[in-house]
Amino acid sequence: ISKNKSVMKSQQIPVYLSAYHATRSPCDRMILTILHHYESNGQPVNEYKPYVFGDSAANHYAVRKNRTASLWAHPTPNQVLNLFEKDIIERTIRNFPVMQKMHYDYELPANIDLTNSEQSIKTVFKRLSEEGLFKQRNIKDNEGVIGDFILRIKYEE
After folding, report:
1. Residues 33-48 pLDDT 10s
2. Do 82 and 36 share a domain, yes or no?
C-alpha cells in the first residue's frame, strides 16, 4: 500500500473494519496500521463513522450500503450501541495497552515459494509459527490449518 497508493480504495474500508476485532494480534495490528495509512493519505475514513468493527461491522456496513444519504438513513445512537458486545468492551477496558506503540510492521519471508509442490499451506503456517506469529497446534490437513489460523486471529488477545 505504501509503495503503490493507487491500490487504496475507499470501498475496502468496511472490509478492513469488518475483519478488525480489536485484539493485539498481529493481524489486527496490521489492519489498524492499514486504516491509519488510509486516513493519513486522504482516504475518506471519516465517512464510515461511527466506527463499528468485527462481525457487527459486516452487518452494519452491508445495511448502510443500501440506504440513501439522507439524514434519516443514519443510525441512531441506540442502534450503534446495540452492535457492541458487552464482554468484548469489558475485556478491552481492563486490558487496553495504553503504552503500546501504534506502528506495526511485518513482512512475509521472501523465500517462501508457494509454487513448489513440497511447500503446502501447512508448511508455510508452520514456518510462520516458528517465527512467533502464532502458536502451532497439530493439524492434519490444509483446510484445518486455515480454519485454525482464522480462529486464532479472531480470538487471540
Report:
1. 888 888 888 888 888 7
2. yes
